[in-house]
Write the structure tokens for this entry.
Amino acid sequence: MKIVEAKNYEDLSKKAAALISAQVILKPNAVIGLATGSTPIGTYEQLVELYKKGYVDFSNARTVNLDEYCGLSPENDQSYRYFMNEKLLNHINIKMENTFLPDGMAKDFDKECKRYDELIDNLGGMDIQLLGIGHNGHIAFNEPSNTFPAYTNISKLGESTIEANARFFDSPSDVPTAALTVGMKAIMQAKKVLLLANGMDKKHIIEKSLYGEITPNVPASILQLHPDLTVITCFK
Ligand code: GLP
């Protein structure tokens, strides 16, 4: 495990973008696992900058997102598809058909979960997986539970997650209560994992996840077992 302490949020974002760009430079058709939430927004801004300056070419890259809210369409400005298009995908030269998220509007969610795992397998898994972390240690939308879910699953969002994500919605009652999320297999099989944590409020859960007991009660603790984990932190 490598831990990099960033000077500030901008520094964290620049470092994360540099590592993702390096991956795409080394393997132009890299499969990049992407995350949502507020933490990676700066990373996406930096990636757009690097693209505009001509340092990185995404024309052959593929992206696979971790999760999507159940019941939100791509046109809904709270959906993760909308977020990804706005923050990154519309501003780089990636082919939209090479960008993937679970379908929050699927008629049969169980089928959709299977389809998403097959899609990831067919792409050969992620070359690099970007992750944020929830205050309760959730990664993607895998909430604390008694087992580590292996496969893409329908996650019932916990109260603290709904509360934390309510800031993006008009009212807490608008936050969807379920999401489709990749499981631990897709995350742990990524060749590299890049975990970002920004803000004093993430310090405790990062310490618990990286140095505490490996337990599904703290989903991110499974990352201790990943052979190539980089964590960039800024606890300010
Ligand atoms: C959501 C996402 C996670 C993300 C988390 C933390 O729950 N599904 O992938 O890590 O939010 O978000 P933030 O970076 O805004 O703290």
